[in-house]
Design brief:
About 55% of the residues lie in helices and about 5% in strands. A two-stranded antiparallel ribbon has the order 1-2. β1 and β2 form a beta hairpin.
């Protein structure tokens, strides 16, 4: 495996964090809740996953050498929930993230000097990476919020639970002092 460059290491860590947040949120839902829209005209989590996966495949396949909007991408179809079951939703999620991490792992330092295109618009490699971090963070935020609402009382917080900040800070301070 190619060494991840320090300038890319933080981006990789943030992509990994976004993936984990989405997975931890979705794991708290029933199969039916994954497919439930919160209001008319909004997307379910399953549809958001399908869109993210389609975007990831398009943007990260042949990342340095072809436009990030692949000619065979059917973006409109990404907004139709045609998954057979939860397994297909998870498989689409995994396929998308595999494209992201495979492309990032293949980058070498000289690649950072390249320009890539997305829908014909030129971007530096770093800008294209940041653009996708922003896009995926937006959708993962939607997934987390929707999961929080749908899970209701079953929800287990993904970060510091309300009312637990002081306890968390004390623990962090104790951990820091013990190192």
């Amino acid at each position: 495996m190619t060494k991840v460059l320090p300038t890319l290491a933080s981006a990789v860590a943030l992509f990994q964090h976004q993936r984990r947040l989405g997975e931890r949120a979705m794991s708290q839902l029933t199969d039916a809740e994954l497919r439930q829209a919160l209001a008319p005209g909004t997307n379910s989590i399953a549809v958001i996953v399908k869109h993210m996966s389609g975007n990831m495949r398009s943007r990260w396949t042949d990342f340095l050498h072809s436009d990030g909007e692949k000619p065979d991408r059917n973006r409109e179809q990404e907004f139709a929930d045609d998954f057979a079951d939860r397994g297909e939703i998870v498989a689409a999620w995994d396929r998308g993230w595999d494209c992201v991490f495979s492309a990032l792992a293949d980058l070498i330092e000289s690649d950072l000097q390249h320009t890539v295109t997305i829908r014909g618009e030129p971007h530096s490699v770093i800008h294209a990476i940041h653009r996708q971090l922003d896009h995926y963070g937006y959708h993962v935020g939607q997934i987390v919020l929707m999961a929080r609402i749908l899970a209701g009382d079953r929800w287990q917080h993904l970060s510091i639970a309300p009312g637990q900040s002081a306890q968390f800070n004390r623990q962090m301070d104790e951990n820091w002092r013990s190192t």
